[in-house]
Amino acid sequence: MHHVTKNVEETQALAKKWLEKHKDQKIWLLKGDLGAGKTSFVKGVASHFKKDLKQVKSPTFSLIEDHGTWIHVDLYRLENSDPTLEEELNEYLKAGYSLFVEWPERMNLWEKHPHVEVQITHLGGDKRGLKLSLLP
Fold first, then answer.
1. At 87, is the secondary structure helix, strand, or coil?
2. Contacting residues for 60 by C-beta, under 8 A, at least 6 apart
3. How far is Cα of residue 126 from the mean position of the Cα atoms in its chain?
4. What's the pTM?
5. Rounded-to-integer distance, Cα 93 and Cα 22, Å
6. Cβ count near 105 (within 10 Å)
């Protein structure tokens, strides 16, 4: 699925819509350059889970932000594979959490699980291109 959003609010609304449509998906991989809108997408996820959007910040330094039934993961600062972090993320999955992961290419964990890939492209100004792919 390809969509173009005109502003942050449309990006968040699209995230919420996609999550409602694919609510059985537990792993969401968010790809895009710095400033593409990955965290804005996660704020749309937060609205789906009835979470205050102000509480959603990219966990760039902590890597994981636990929101109760879902987690926001930012692997931007991860330089090498981290078996301890992989195990922790697997434990979240076993516990039924949904994972929303920025910079997923920094870890190979995802190939083992069905997941959603969301490619976000900055199109200038507040416009974003978003492509959703369901992967086995």
1. helix
2. 74, 76, 77
3. 19
4. 0.91
5. 16
6. 10
Size of the chain, expressed as the number of residues it contains: 136
**Given the structure tokens 């593409």, which residue do they identify?**
36
pLDDT of residue 33: 95
Rounded Cα distance, 136 and 127, in Å: 29
- Average pLDDT, stretch 90-97? 96
Tokens, residue 118? 């969301």
Inter-CA distances, 23 with 2, 11, 77, 90, 105, Å: 19, 18, 29, 19, 23
Closest alpha carbon to 39 in 52, 56, 17: 56
Other C-beta atoms closer than 10 Å to the C-beta of 24 total 7
Give the whole-angstrom CA distance, residue 9 versus residue 121.
16
